[in-house]
Write a structure and sequence with these properties.
The protein contains four helices and five strands; from the N terminus they run ββαβαββαα. The chain is an alpha+beta fold.
């Protein structure tokens, strides 16, 4: 699990394979999140001098490790987010759950449908 600190430069996040990061303090408590869109905006506005703290979303939406998957999905849908830090009762980061983590098991019993959807880009639509 890759994390960043609030005082880290956003340039550290450019070009990674990740689309978002939990922002943690020195005690590993989640204090924010920063997405690849936030990073892009930061680099355009301030270049390599931009700091994570100035572009992170705070307070972060999180879920406790004992939460039901439906609760995590509900938080993600309500917050329109793609990844959710999982924390213990003191707010320390213990993991991250993504939309893929939630949806993949729903389609695995229908492996034929899952494979079909992945191969057929024409089945995807966007609402405008």
């Amino acid at each position: 699990m890759v994390t960043v600190g609030p005082n880290d430069p956003v340039s550290k996040l450019v070009g990674t394979k990740y689309t978002g990061f939990p922002v943690v303090d020195v005690n590993n408590v989640v204090v924010g999140v920063i997405s690849d869109k936030d990073v892009t905006r930061a680099v355009k506005e301030k270049g390599s001098d931009a700091k994570v703290r100035d572009y992170m979303t705070t307070p972060p939406l999180t879920v406790l490790g004992r939460a039901h998957v439906a609760e995590a999905a509900g938080v993600m849908l309500a917050g329109r987010i793609h990844r959710l830090p999982v924390v213990d009762k003191s707010g320390k980061l213990v993991g991250i759950v993504s939309r893929t983590d939630i949806f993949r098991p729903l389609l695995e019993p229908r492996k034929d449908l899952y494979d079909y959807v992945l191969k057929r880009k024409d089945v995807f639509t966007t609402l405008e």
